[in-house]
Amino acid sequence: MKTRTQLLLSGLTAAFLLTDSTYAEENFVTEMVEDINISQLTHVKDWIVLPYAFSTDSTGLSGGVGVIKQGLFQPHTTLIATLMYGTEQDIITNGREETANFSGGFISFSNYRLPFTDRTFFSLYGLKSYFPSATSYLSNGYNDSKQEDRLVSSGDSNFLNTTFRYVLPIGEGLDNPERRYTLKNGFAMNREGLGGGTPFVTGFTSLGLRTFYQKDVYENTMESPLPEWETYGLRLFLEHDNTDYDLNPSRGYNFLLQYSRDFGDGDSLQSWDFLEAKYSHYISLPTFSWTQQNVLALNAWTGYSFSWDNDTQIDADGVIDAHRPPPWEGARLGGLFRMRAYDNNRFSDKAALYATAEYRAILDWNPFRKNKYIPVAIDWFQVVLFAEAGRVSDSYNTDLFTDMKYDAGISLRAMAAEVPVRIDVAYGDEGTNFWVMVYQPFDF
Predict the structure, then answer these.
(1) Structure confidence by residue, pLDDT tens digits, 128-149
(2) Which 3-state string (H, E, C) describes the chain?
(3) Is there a contact between 84 and 102 (Cβ–Cβ < 8 Å)?
(4) Per-residue model confidence as pLDDT tens digits over 374-384
(5) Domain count across the chain
(6) Cβ of 73: how many Cβ atoms within 10 Å?
(7) Phi first, then psi: what are they for 387, rounded to 5°?
């Protein structure tokens, strides 16, 4: 059994790679970081500038510079951008030995209220990149597949996603569509009576439209059934958040219903669809003498692709099913957010079922609370114990409850610059994974 360690450079670098599923996640987070050399954050006229260096199996020794600007154009917006480049690496392309350099650029601009509207918000994030060595389970992600049956190939990975979110004028969204909170030491103030109220009467309710585009190129086509995979389409979603504080809830619940569709137009490889639902629940528990907050956090997620036809294949090798989502979309498990002991997008099929429980405890102990040498505010540390169970299947039936995959782990989290940053260590039957990322895992 192979044990692999994943480590991102910092919570900020992880924020640059905050995506649903991309080569970026797979290579920056799934591969072992062999060397780290990070400078301190530098503030230039309210801009945070971060030079950094890293080394992974997929990028080689690389470096970059990132910037963050909060409150660009509007008080509640955030801009994140980074450029990255790597040293020359030996690769194999179509059976030939060559050399290549990792390169990438990422941008995210979020929560911009559109002109002439009071409650419609726009966000976008995109990546343009080339990876000398990328791992994917292109056609071997079913529940009984073997970890070693994976594709390793150099190639481009580019995506651009946008979100248009309308906050309904009901509940808290009536007077506070921007979700502005008064924070003190990382806790939302004056929220004692909120969280867990009547659905759609209290809390925030949003309707939205997301656009997505992604193209992954597999240069080592002698091992790959497809030279590239391109997809783009729309997502419609309904989201209801009824918690006391969305970035770190202590009570209440939230749920999401979302439908995604690629219509198969233009250069899209093929049409597909996917329906998913997610529910999270938070229970406040009594504290100990050494904790400020104790919470039991529960989450369940499920999804199904109606279009997936596993009786018909579209490639000459007969391994890519017709009208299936790409391996980074649809009913997939493994990675940053679900089944963290497994490789990113390790399992994928027509249907998926997933459940997890986390015990979260915010400590009284915080040696960095008033440390002048730390360039950003660190308000608290949180210790988390978690367990997960999940399964993918070619049909949505009781098989999803049999032969499930399991893992368990521990996490250390911190509220840094008013954003939760987490380090998760998870163990399962294919080894141990070590992740660093921003935001709580239930947020995605």
Answers:
(1) 999 998 888 887 889 999 988 8
(2) CCCCCCCCCCHHHHHHCCCCCCHHHHHHHHCCCCCEEECCCEEECCEEEEEEEEEECCCEEEEEEEEEEECCCCCCCEEEEEEEEEEEEEEEECCEEEEEEEEEEEEEEEEEECCCCCCEEEEEEEEEEEEEEEEECCCCCCCCCCCCCCEEEEEEEEEEEEEEEEECCCHHHHCCCCCCCCEECCEECCCCCCCCCCECCECEEEEEEEEEEEEEECCCCCCCCCCEEEEEEEEEEEEEEEECCCCCCCCEEEEEEEEEEECCCCCCCCCEEEEEEEEEEEEEECCCCCEEEEEEEEEEEEEECCCCEEEEECCCCCCCEECCCCCCCCEEECCCCCCCCCCCCCEEECEEEEEEEEEEEEECCCCCCCCCCCCCCEEEEEEEEEEEEEEEECCCCHHHHCCCEEEEEEEEEEEECCEEEEEEEEEECCEEEEEEEECCHHHC
(3) yes
(4) 767 889 999 99
(5) 1
(6) 11
(7) -140, 145
Q: Is residue 3 part of a domain?
A: no
Assigned domain for 139 exists: yes
Give the pair of three-digit tokens for residue 403. Answer: 């032969």
Give the integer Cα–Cα distance in Å for 271 and 66: 36
How many residues does the structure list for the chain? 444
262 falls within a domain: yes
In the structure encoding, which two tokens stand for residue 71, read together?
A: 């409150």
Residue 24 burial class via C-beta count within 10 angstroms: exposed 0-12, middle 13-18, buried 19 and up: buried
CATH of residue 199: 2.40.160.50
Most confident option among 68-77, 83-92, 291-300, 363-372: 291-300
Instruction: Indicate the pLDDT class of residue 20, thresholds 50, 70 and 90.
Output: very low
**Domain coverage including residue 55:** 11-443
